[in-house]
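Protocol step 4 of 6: structure prediction from sequence.
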Amino acid sequence: MSASDANSSTKSQASTGGIGIANLPNQLHKIVTKKGTNFSLMVVGESGTGKTTFINTLLTTELIEPLDDANRRKKQLDKTVDINIHKAELEEKMFNVKLNVVDTPGFGDYVDNNDCWLPVVDFIENQYEQYLRQEQQPVRKGVVDMRVHACLYFIRPNGHT
C-alpha cells in the first residue's frame, strides 16, 4: 500500500463520518440514537384545566387515566398537592425516549392557595439534587434521571376579553 493510497483512504474515512472534530456532532447523534434519552414533563394547574386530556392527546394513548365526574368534583379535606409520576417508553424512527410525566393533582384547587407551589418546587429541587449525588459517585452505571426538563402551567380560562 503506497502513501497516496493510505492518504486517500483516510480522506474517504473522514468524509464518510469516521474521524475528526468536524464529525463530532454526527458521533454524538449516533450515541444518543443508540442509547436513547430521558425526558420529564411536568404539568401543573387546577383540576379541570385539561392536563390529562392534553397529555393523552399528545401521546395518542391513555397514559393517564381521567377521573370520573364524581371523583373530579369531590374536594379533598386536607390541602395537599400530590406528585404523581407516569412513565412511558416511546420509539419513533429507531429513537427511544423514556418519558416521565409528572402530574400535580390538587394544585391550586382551593380558595386560599398560599404555598401550594412549595411541593412542586421541592420536587424539582430534590430531583436535581438526587441527580447531582448520582453523578458524584465513582461508579455511575444506572443513573436515574428524573429532572424536570419542561413544565407546562395550565391556566383556567376566565372568559374575559
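Step 5 (inspection) to follow. The radius of gyration is 23 Å.
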